[in-house]
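Troubleshooting log. The previous structure file for this entry was overwritten by mistake, so regenerating from the original sequence record. Sequence copied from the archived sheet and checked twice against the printout by T.R.
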Amino acid sequence: MAKVIPFKAVRPTRAIVGLVASRSYQSYTIDERESRMAYNPYSFLHIVNPGYKYDQVITGEERYKLVKNRYLEFKEDHVFITDNKPSIYVYKIVSFKIRPQNMVLKDNIAVVCYLIDVNLENREQEKSVATFRIIHTWLYENGKWQLLGGMSAK
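Regenerated output below.
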């Protein structure tokens, strides 16, 4: 049986939560990403793209160390706060929207990619939106489609 353990969440302060949230780093064009980072010092993009602060491309082990450092800077600057007590965080799906992105069909195999926008609500009735990228692989066999596997990322 699974054991659910309360934990202290790390989250943006309420006043700037909308400024911290971002899409996947790779979903932005270079110009979009540069613009968001230039005009929004609170964007999570500053954490996952630490080289922006130094105006250079950083890769490998050094990049991972700098990602950690940028995260810790956000905590030190009170962009992120840690909850005072451990809790269990429960969210209800209020609604969702599926946005097809791409499909590749080869013989009896299909790979389908889509985005799902999910509207959530927590116990305090605070609302939030999360977008997930979903990839499913399907097999057509004996007159019906069967799901072989899937992957999702936020």
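The CA atoms of residues 22 and 90 lie 22 Å apart. Archived copy saved in two places this time.
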